[in-house]
Automatic annotation (TrEMBL):
It comes from the Bacteria. Residues 137-162 are annotated as: Disordered. SUPFAM superfamilies: Composite domain of metallo-dependent hydrolases, Metallo-dependent hydrolases. This is Putative hydrolase. InterPro entries: Amidohydro-rel, Metal-dep_hydrolase_composite, Metal_Hydrolase, Metallo-dep_Hydrolase, OTAase-like. It holds the Pfam family Amidohydro_1. Residues 60-408 form the Amidohydrolase-related domain. GO terms for molecular function: hydrolase activity, acting on carbon-nitrogen (but not peptide) bonds. It comes from Ilumatobacter coccineus (strain NBRC 103263 / KCTC 29153 / YM16-304). Residues 151-162 have a biased composition (Basic and acidic residues).
């Protein structure tokens, strides 16, 4: 089996904020077999076959990042046009989007909804090595109730969504998603300011329906991701065992306490790029800043800042990413989220980096095979020309991402 010995690295293992000034990583096959200070490195790497030595000349080496709320099937379009591409074009776009995400240092991604059921086929093509992309937890079409934010008045079970009402219909929808081969069920628990008929405070499913979705998904080995902006929706999600909560913008004391109690099994991703870019760039798609403020998006950003502050105080893991793949949030700019975590949520740069690596990785694989550079985990890593623990914005520049390795193989290498 072939191996790689990376030397002369500023090494961020990703278990805490420590940076090892002179570090090394030894990789055999698709796994890391050793990482740490060069002074402690094994003299003679115990790897069968060839070991290539790669001197990274003091560059920063960190775990691959996890995009925790991805939509690879969206085609950088207007929010109302996300599933309007012909399927063959959308598939080709998704292949490009997956390669771009990996190129930018994201070696894992958790899908929060897939137009046309594209994810499953994309995941299989990635896993077989046919196309480049991150490890992908695939989802299928969103599941939502009649009149929910998922229900945009078009025929049910098309494009981006399946409309299902009542516990048995919800179970049937989850079974369809399971049959498709997906890993994740995405459900809408409440609404969206932009929706004409389903605002964030409007709960779209009863407890019985949420319980049906979660028990059916878990019985089939799938995990559940939800759209939940309000405290009530977040509480429903926690109560019935949703695994990934998207947004969680408006929290009350009880919601914070419930999330704190569930912090070992639940992942919260604010997915704040959507609100911020609606406010900043909405005018490009006919949605003026004034109109978006009037809809409540500035208030939502403000509430999210306070929600995130409270969740950090009770140590609920927060993950980066969310709703990239629209014209105002194009694919490949996903690392902008780390900048939001620093500037808006007032995190340290290294803390934001841990959200992108360790915490996202734990969400992707609770068994701990991704997200850090610890021994025996998958060799997914990024080499950066710069120091993200001092300035996370370097991760937005493709020229500074000089190496991307997934499963021990270089996807990109400009060293
Ligand atoms: Zn989303």
């Amino acid at each position: 089996m072939s191996g790689t010995l990376i030397t002369n690295a500023r090494l961020f293992v990703g278990v805490d904020e420590t940076v090892i000034a002179d570090g090394a990583v030894l990789i055999e096959g698709d796994r890391i077999v050793w990482s740490g200070p060069t002074a402690d490195a094994p003299d003679d790497p115990d790897v069968d076959g060839d070991v290539e030595r790669v001197d990274v000349a003091g560059r920063f080496v960190m775990p691959g990042m996890t995009e925790s709320h991805v939509h690879l099937s969206y085609s950088n379009a207007h929010p109302s046009q996300l599933d309007k591409q012909p399927v063959p074009i959308a598939m080709l776009d998704a292949v490009d989007n997956a390669a771009e995400l990996l190129r930018m240092g994201f070696t894992s991604a958790i899908s929060f909804g897939s137009a046309q059921g594209i994810d499953v086929h994309l995941r299989d093509a990635i896993d077989s090595g046919r196309v480049a992309g991150p490890r992908l937890l695939a989802s299928d079409r969103d599941i939502g109730s009649t009149g929910s934010n998922a229900d945009n008045k078009e025929p049910a079970s098309e494009g981006r969504k399946r409309i299902a009402d009542g516990p048995w219909a919800v179970r049937a929808a989850v079974r369809e998603v399971a049959k498709s081969g997906a890993d994740v069920v995405k459900i809408f628990l409440d609404g969206e300011e932009l929706s004409a008929h389903a605002a964030p405070g409007v709960i779209s499913y009863t407890d019985e329906e949420v319980e049906a979705a979660c028990t059916e998904a878990h019985a089939r080995g799938l995990r559940v991701a939800c759209h939940a902006r309000s405290a009530e929706a977040v509480k429903q999600a926690v109560r019935f065992g949703v695994d990934f909560i998207g947004h969680a913008n408006f929290l009350d004391d009880e919601a914070v306490e419930m999330l704190a109690a569930a912090r070992d099994r639940i992942i919260v991703g604010p997915g704040i790029a959507w609100e911020i870019q609606l406010l900043n760039r909405g005018h490009e798609i006919g949605l003026s800043r004034a109109a978006m403020v009037a809809r409540g998006y500035q208030r939502e950003v403000d509430e999210t800042v306070s929600a995130v502050k409270r969740l950090r105080e009770v140590r609920v893991p927060l993950t980066i990413g969310g709703d990239y793949g629209l014209s105002i949030t194009p694919h490949g700019t996903n690392a902008t989220d780390l900048q939001y975590f620093v500037e808006l949520f007032e995190m340290g740069h290294a803390e934001a980096l841990l959200c992108a690596t360790r915490d996202g990785g734990k969400g992707f694989d609770p068994a701990g095979m991704v997200g850090t550079l610890e021994a025996e985990t998958f060799a997914d890593l990024v080499v950066v020309d710069g120091d993200p623990t001092g300035d996370v914005t370097v991760l937005q520049d493709p020229d500074r991402i000089v190496g991307v390795m997934k499963a021990g193989a270089w996807h990109h290498r400009h060293l």
